[in-house]
Amino acid sequence: MRKAASLLFLLKFLKAPLSIITLSLTAKYFGVSLDRDIWLLSFSFIIMIDLAIWGPINETFRAKFITIKESEGEIAALEHTRSLLAYIFLGSLLVVLLMEIFAPMIASWIAPNFTEEESKSLTSMLRWVSPILLFNQFVLLGNSILNAYEIFYAPELAAFISQGANILLLILLAPYIGIYSLLFSTALSSFFQIAFLIFYYRKLRIPIFKRQTIKFEHFWFFFLFAVPFFIPYFFGQLNGIIEKSIASTLGTGVVSTIDYARRVPDIINGVLISVVLTIVVPLLTKNFVRKDEDSFNANFMSSFQLGLFLLMAFVAFMATGSMHLNTLLYTSNSISFDAMKDITDLSVLYAGALIAIFLYLLFGMCMISVGKSKLYAVLGAGAQVFIILLNMLLVERVGMYTFPLSIFVAHFVSAIVMAYNYPYDKKQIAVEFIRYVLFGVVLSIGVYYSYASLVYMYTLNNIIFEIIIIGVIQILLMLVMGYLFQIKEFVDLHHKAKAVLTKFTR
């Protein structure tokens, strides 16, 4: 499982340059501006609504589909899935119609400090963006179906090609239609992924579109399983809306500043979450259904260790290279030096918050697999409410920095409670966590002071060269510290290198 997760992470990580290019182009064309704020407010609101309504079903779909497939057979699982897709489409269509009607009221709610003219622009964008609801869940569930058949890599290839087309469309359209180029490129990207899914289902002869009577009880079957998660998802999306609403009151461009700051951490977060949902959930569910405790524990610990290692490496890089990376990505006349400093500081804090988010998600998936989904749901809702309260109470004192700090605190506390309910060796989890955190702290300090010493001795004036230098320093230190802290990847690398040297010196 560790090998499959590592390969999937690598594939997803290879998409990161495309995400970074998209991000850089967005900064180039739109910078920190009102248009960018309007796009973020409207697009984020639509995605939040989508996730609040269908997110819990999407998150639990893989586990339930595999359970039905294992216990009742493939035909029954597909019959349930067809009904689910039909009702999701009808429900999304209803939401889109309501959005078209109530867009002015929604605009005044999510951006209360906007002028009348600004509210009109936001209303117009909300109406244009809302149809994305009709396609987003089909793409997510469509990929989940392939994952349930243990097809992990093909969806990543489709997403890679789709993202490349997205970049091309942005370059071609942005000079002519401005911020609406983001809308068109996003829509066409979704169409491409849907076309790919249809092609792949036919190629593998998965009869997902076979005619049948759509039964409400089949939809209800998935819905009931996901019910405990609707509360945390609701508060999670409400939290996102409130966060952007609060940020919009701090001044023009603050919403964009926060968005730019969290985009690079979000790329890493998206990769890790996708790997957890794509590989970990199906495997843990299979282990639980088959009552294979040893495999369950081994698969969980592999994911736990790999995730912590990758996050500690990322935080160590951001602690030193955040300013260089953000300067490279967001060079724009509309982004001031002060805004860039805020983006840099916030991005480091958001990178640290990923550790708590990863722990919360991984233990949450574990709770689902061992039949404690209600605990995960309650803690998820509590975490989101806690974040909302912290943001409202601290924003006047801490400003925009309260957002990443509240995310870290709330998710970390929830993860600790779920870790206490882990059914197997809790002591091993605690020991591994402390070991990996120490590895991350020592690595961060080592990279920072090594680079600072180099800069003190030599003058470096090229940003790309400086980022490469930081990366090389980190890799060299990781090779040493990874072995000293007995990180599995580096211990295995050391043994392989030793075996090769022994072979050639005979």
UniProtKB/TrEMBL annotation:
- Name the principal localization, coarsely classed: membrane
Instruction: Report the transmembrane regions from the record.
Output: 38-57, 84-106, 126-146, 153-173, 179-199, 219-235, 267-285, 306-328, 348-368, 375-395, 401-421, 433-451, 463-485
**Topology with regard to the membrane?**
Multi-pass membrane protein
Q: Which InterPro entries match?
A: Lipid_II_flippase_MurJ/MviN (IPR051050), MurJ (IPR004268)
As for subcellular location, the record says:
Cell membrane
- Member of which family? Belongs to the MurJ/MviN family.
Q: What is the stated purpose of this protein?
A: Involved in peptidoglycan biosynthesis. Transports lipid-linked peptidoglycan precursors from the inner to the outer leaflet of the cytoplasmic membrane.
The name on file for this protein is Lipid II flippase MurJ
Keywords from UniProt, A to Z, are: Cell membrane, Cell shape, Membrane, Peptidoglycan synthesis, Transmembrane, Transmembrane helix
Q: Does the keyword Cell membrane apply?
A: yes
Looking up Pfam families in the UniProt record yields: MurJ
KW Ion transport (keyword) present: no
Q: Which organism is it from?
A: Sphingobacterium corticis
